[in-house]
Amino acid sequence: MSGAYNTMVYQPVISNDAGYNYTYRVVPGNASKSLLHKRLVQNPFLSIGQGRMPWNNASWYLEPQNAQYIQNIVNWINAGAKDMLDVAPTFGNKDPRTIGLQVYPAGNTTSPYSRSGDEPINVPANISVDIWTSIEDDSTKAQNMVVTEMKISTMPYDFKNSTTNSLVYSTPMSGTDFWGAPVSFTHKLSSFSTAYPSGTILYVRTYTKDPHHTTVSEMPNDGTNEGVFKFFTIKIT
Q1: Nearest to 138 by CA among 177, 104, 95, 100
Q2: Can you tell me the distance from the alpha carbon of 213 to that of 140, in angstroms, rounded to the nearest whole number?
Q3: Mapped to the 3 state alphabet, what secondary structure does the chain carry?
Q4: What pLDDT does residue 218 have?
Q5: Whole-number pLDDT of residue 45
Q6: pLDDT one-digit tens code per residue, 62-87
Q7: Which residues touch 71 (CB under 8 Å, ≥6 apart)?
Q8: Whole-number pLDDT of residue 165
Q9: Domains of the chain, CATH where assigned
Q10: pLDDT tens, 87-115?
């Protein structure tokens, strides 16, 4: 899903209209300047590239519920075209971000603890675990990040007394991101103790920075929506 997002937002158009009125497929904050919107609403007898989308269903636009679908896309673009983690896009080089979190028994890389949908990862109490992250960036490889850190708290918005833990780059392993797509996990916090009472929810925040930025990217942060917060939680069972 993140791949599809990155091919649209601030991405140059390939097939323009006759007046060359469009620069990007999606312009955050401006649906009228976004070719994606034009492709959804244009008269089907006009031609931009392959015409009105979806190109293989000429009657799609006549189905009544699709007016709302198109309006949802317009609302998303005009609200800033935020990504699946509720982060607003930036023009040019983007901040790195964490798109996957997995927990394994310490030293194990084959049997991650389970997560159901966007619910917390269920981890037994009183054991030692490794917490792995998958980092995405548009120009810098994961091993070249200059900051990779993690904080863990029992409070969703209070990390001021939480220890800052350095994440160590390790031999990449395969896993899935928050939406089930295959990705590489490269950084881990080793031998974290789960010595908490059963039922405790642990809230995780990651901190990453590539060489091209001066500030550290926090994921999630206080402005992140509740749905995304669930991806960064661990439940002690």
Answers
A1: 95
A2: 11
A3: CHHHHHCCECCECCCCCCCCCCCECECCCCHHHEHHHHHHHCCCCCCCCCCCCCCCCCCHHHCCCHHHHHHHHHHHHHCCCCCCCCCCCCCCCCCCEEEEEEEEECCCCCCCCCCCCCCCEEECCCCEEEEEEEEECCCCCHHHCCEEEEEEECCCCCCCCCCCEECEEEEEEEEECCCCCEEEEEEEEEEEECCCCCCCEEEEEEEEECCCCCCCEEECCCCCCHHHHHHCEEEEC
A4: 94
A5: 41
A6: 667 778 888 999 999 999 999 888 88
A7: none
A8: 97
A9: 2-78 (no CATH), 97-236 (2.60.40)
A10: 888 777 778 989 999 999 999 999 999 98
The pLDDT tens digits of the residues spanning 12-26 come to 776 677 777 888 889
Which stretches of the chain score pLDDT less than 50?
A: 45-49
Residues in the chain: 237
Distance CA 147, CA 174 (A): 22
> What tokens appear for 63 in the block?
């189905």
